[in-house]
Every structure is written in C-alpha cells, then in structure tokens.
What we know:
By secondary structure, the chain is of the alpha/beta class. It folds into two domains: about 10-110 and about 240-340, P-loop containing nucleotide triphosphate hydrolases (Rossmann fold), CATH 3.40.50.300; about 120-215, no CATH class. About 40% of the residues lie in helices and about 20% in strands. It is built from 13 helices and twelve strands. Strands 6-7-8-3-9-10-12-11 form an eight-stranded mixed sheet, sandwiched between helices. A four-stranded antiparallel sheet has the order 2-1-4-5, with helices on one face. Helix 4 crosses helix 7 and helix 4 (about 120-150) crosses helix 9 (about 225-240). The longest helix is centred in the middle third of the chain and has 29 residues, at about 120-150. It starts with 9 loop residues before the first strand and ends in an 11-residue tail after the last strand.
Amino acid sequence: MSNKPLSLEEQLKVNDLTVRFYTYEGIVKAVEKASLKIRKGETLGIVGETGSGKSVTALTILALTPSPGRVEDGNILFRKRDSSVIDILRMNEHQLLQIRGKEISMIFQEPNAALDPVCKVGEQITEAILAHRLREMVEKSIEVIKKEKDNEYDLWTRLETWTYKEMLNNPSDVRLKIIQKIPIIRDITKRRLRQVIRQEIVELLKLMEIPDPGRVIDAYPHELSGGMQQRIVIAIALACSPLLLIADEPTTNLDVTVQAQILDLINRLKEKFGSSIIYITHDMGVVAEISDRVAVMYAGSVVEVAPVKELFRNPLHPYTKGLLESIPRPGSPLKSIPGTVPNLVDPPSGCRFHPRCAYMMNKCKEIMPRLVKVSEDHYVACLLYEGESDD
C-alpha cells in the first residue's frame, strides 16, 4: 500500500505513520510505518493483541497522541464534508477543534472515563451540539418563533428574533451585546434555545433506543447502567453526524447481551448517518460481525489488510493465522500463539513477529517487510510474499 493521495472513494488514509514515546526507560517504538485507508461508508476493523498500537493509531488520527508520544513520520489525509482534503497532522489546534466532534468523532472504551460524573447527561450532549451546531439551533429557534406567533410579532418577539439573527450574522455587534445584558431578553433567548436543543437531544436519545429519554436527559452518569452510559457516549459522538466514527473497544466491559445490542445499534446508525467507522477490538467474533474490511496490527505494524470474508477464509500472515486458530472451538483443544508481544523499547530487528513465527527465515531477522498486494484488496506484510507487487 504505497504513499498515494486520497482517492475520491476514500474518506481517510494513513500513510507510513510512525509514533514514538520518549520515556525514562527508553524510546518506545509504538507505531512503525503503519498504513491504512478507509472508504466512504465502510467499517474497517482493527484487531491485534494488547500493545499492538491500535489505540495509539486511533488517537493519532484525531491528533490526540498521548503524552509523551510524538509523531515522527507519516501523514493522515482526511476528506472533509466540503470535499477538501486535509493532512490532520499539519493542522493547528484551532483547526483541529473544528474537526473533532463535527467531522471525526470517537467512542471511548470506558464510558465512565468519557462522561463527566458531576454533569447531567443532557448538559454533556448540549456541549457537543453548541460547539458545532449553534447556527442550526438558532435557526430552529427562529422557526419556532414564527410558528408560535404565526408571523404576528410584538415588540418582545421582534427583539428576540433580532437577537437570534444578530447572533448568526454579526455576533460582535455592540447593540447585540447591550441587548443581551437586559435580563428579560437574555433569559427568553436562552430558555428558547435550551428548549430547542433539549428536543434535539430527546430525538437523538430515541435513536439510541434509550427508554424514557426525557428522564435520562436529566440523569447523572452514575444513575445509568454501563450499557446506557455507552449509548450516551455514542449519542455524543453522533450528535453532529460525523463523517468518520472511531470506536475504541466500546463493548469490552459490557455483558454479551448488551454487547450484541450495541453492535447492532452501531450498524444501524452507520446506515442512517452514512458514516465511515474504524472499529478497534481484540475480539475476532466482533470483527466478523461488524466489519467490511479488517486490518491486523502487531507490535505497532499493520501486517495484513483484507475484506472480512477473505481474511477469515484465506489468512496469509502467520500472525493472522495464529489469531484465527486461537479462537475457542467446542470439542477442539485451545491453541495459542507462543511467546508474547515484544518490548517496544527494544523490538526485534527485521520483522517484529519473527521470534514467534513458525515460518521464520534468516532474512526475517534483518528485513522489515512492507505491505504488498497479493490479490484484490488483500495486502500482507510478510517476506513469504515478497515477490508480489504492491499497489
């Protein structure tokens, strides 16, 4: 998978991403020349053992590489809603704030950590809406006024309407600032705007299949179950209909029944919103359930990318074969991959998987394999396939 610009069918492309963590123990080589692409409207599953670099790659897509991490090389190309293409790693913080939540959102693994325990659910969703959809909410408030008054305005209504229009078109107007200091006008405009946003949130919670959304919107996170909390996190992520949704193991701590409900919900919301999804997990069963294509990561490198059916039917990389063989099967002995994920402060030379590989050759200790195309949409980084030509 070579370093090419974004094609029209692609939503995001990660080219040769390299991330290092500078620690007291040494330099952690967390992500090494990782390349990924995701097409419009598809779900890309990213799988691998703990420590393979899945979450670091996902956070770096949002330019949120955890400290003391540093992006050393590569680029991340993203196609915005207006069809312009940007390199996320070259944007400043102000530009990134316009992207996060609006164009790219993330569902985090721990809803307890993602939600503020001292703020009500509605307040937290409101924050996301106000950050990116204020104009839309103000326009809806004006429409509500027109319906209520049937186009017959009194003085207070005219002032309220004028205030909203100035908020949209000339927010720095001195007259607006003076009007907003009048308590009755300030209270009326805020109350109506809150009502419009509240109705928007209620509709969003209904989409999340949350019973009694009018009650939940006024609840604190600790008053909700784990499954309900995760639905709230999904609601916040989808509040602005993002083009790309990154889900970082969102069902890890949920029981099997709730996990199935959340996966089904994400699939249906994907169809409704038309978003592309990057779904990170270590569960091959979840991958088979939700993904269109799968990227397998090991020790910071992408070792295989293929359509989900092709990957399960014809895995090529020895690590992918080991992952699939380790899935428990009734009546069969449990298999495992020998060894452990290497210490990334001092990773193995050449192919990072070679100490655990049954097909290891001498050159595997010296040469870092690159992703090559072996069949339609199927890429693998293994010297067993070095004769194949890349894309």
